[in-house]
Amino acid sequence: MRDNLELSYRVLGSIGTNVYFVINKTTRETIIIDPADEADYLLEQAKLRDYRICAVLLTHGHFDHIMAADAIRKATGVKIYAYKDEEKILTDKYRNRSANWATPTTLNADEWLSDGQEIELAGFHIRVIHTPGHTCGSCCYYMYEEGVLFSGDTLFKDSYGRTDLPTGSEDEIIASVQMLLTRLPEETDVFPGHMDRTTIGYERRYNPLSMP
Length: 212
Description:
The chain has helices spanning about 40-50, 70-75, 85-90, 100, 170-185, 200-205; strands at about 5-10, 15-25, 30-35, 50-55, 80-85, 110-115, 120, 125-130, 140-145, 150, 155, 160, 190, 200. The protein is an alpha/beta fold. The strands form three sheets. It has a six-stranded mixed beta sheet, with helices on one face. A six-stranded mixed beta sheet has the order 7-8-9-10-13-14. Strands 11-12 form a two-stranded antiparallel sheet.
């Protein structure tokens, strides 16, 4: 299955968010993960490369991960997916920080997801992993057949997400990161919401939250 996966990303928005295109090489069906901003640019890039957008996945509801989501939905008719506990962030411009740091924005998902739920999009099987801590409804998307994890702002290379924003919890993010590091195979490639990619094996050795 991994041979059929193509990944591309753009760094967009005021905080430099990684926006991922997850492409099925055969069908060109494409998932966009965390469309941070610049919807017109993302749509143009998809058109130029024959990316056939079929869904938008959100790892969490902060403004720097969602600003282009609704425009993409309106332009393409695709559904937006998010974890069910994140509704309180997505629908509140103060909790998602857009009222403070960007254009005030609220958003509702079309599909609210649950922990352990498996969805099939673009021909890929994707497992939803609830990873609270950065926000109460933060989640990761695990493409287990391809060995790929999209970790949002939960797990970063050598680091982890901040917990001082609404619904954040230091205790919860410690538990979430340690769960990922202990349960997932070490060869899993991790694509975070900001900065560089990493692997579970690397983070087991170097992440400050890794268990001894």
